[in-house]
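Hello forum,

I keep getting stuck at the same step: I have a sequence, I want structure tokens, and every attempt I make locally crashes halfway through. Rather than fight my setup again tonight, could one of you with a working pipeline run this one for me? It's a single chain of 371 residues.
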Amino acid sequence: MRLSTAFVSLAALLSASHVGAQLTPNNLVATSTTGALSALKYTNVGGAGEYNEVTNIIPGNFPTCDANPFCITQPKQISGNLAPFDEEMTIVFRGPMTISNIAVYQPTNATSATWKQVSSWEAGKQPSNLVFMNNMGGTNNSGEWSICAGASQSYANGDWTSAVPTPNAEIAHGTLSGADEINIMTAEECSESNPCSGFSRGTANHGWAGSKFFVFTFDMPASSDASQVPAIWALNAQIVRAAQYGCNCRGVGPGGCGELDILETIAGSDVNQAISEIYTPKATTGSGTSFFARPLTGQVTYGVIFDVQTDSIAIQHYTEWDYTQTAVTRSVVEGYLNAPAMTISLEAAANGRRAEMPRSVMSAHRRRRWH
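Reply #2:
Ran it on my machine without issues. Output:
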């Protein structure tokens, strides 16, 4: 990727040893904090509360599948900055979409002075500490499936339409059809020696816990099928490890173990506009009548920062990103977090003051309650 002079200047800052004063990034698109957004920040995200963590799934026997209870849960107490988004998270992509690059950065120690690139992928190449997964368990010896409990996670094949027995067995080239979804996890598998939180079955991997900084370059081309609406969203990793569209800790509607809709187009609404919504035990709110423009032609780059230290989440549109960077400094992260943005406080939302949300109170993903 050819970099502009301005961005080369930023790259130099990102690799510098500044740990004190905040640095001002110069790869942010022109600021817009209402209507068509360039940036959105959620503040006062964490707090004390609870959600129902899945501990087991008992599917029952076909044809009745009548186990009762089927979805076994127990209350899990949470507290502190960013909770529950400080837990392991996964990012989900729904087509039609073309993805060129993904990178994930996390603090290297408690001081957060340096955020190291811990995962990365470029279209047409093998990823580093990043695995593409989908919900096709039981296909091609990947994951598991039962007629009563449905499919577990599976390792996605190269064109993201089916499953393969081992992670990243085929090279992914980045084209996601409008009929498919994928999610990303780390390369660390859940095991007895390296257990994952909550219930998992079949093929299950760890997500990214604590503070994390995701960057992706992608587009969302038009589809002739009005029901095919692209989206990018973050979920508590427990959700996909149990059953993304079945028995999980997310549930339906407000609450649950944490979901952030980063850019989501809604069927039946203006599909050229991508909204953001957030769901936590503390509050449910979102961008309301404001939106991010859907990138129909030409790729765009977005960053999403989950920061424990400031108890905030920032979604921002960048002019470009140098994916060869192996680290960013805390001072640069602070620069992004403090850049102009539409700002929504979950404290205010919890007290009944929230952005108007005319499109949806439960988002548009194919959620359904387990029976």
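The chain has a mean pLDDT of 89. If your local run keeps crashing, start a new thread with the error log.
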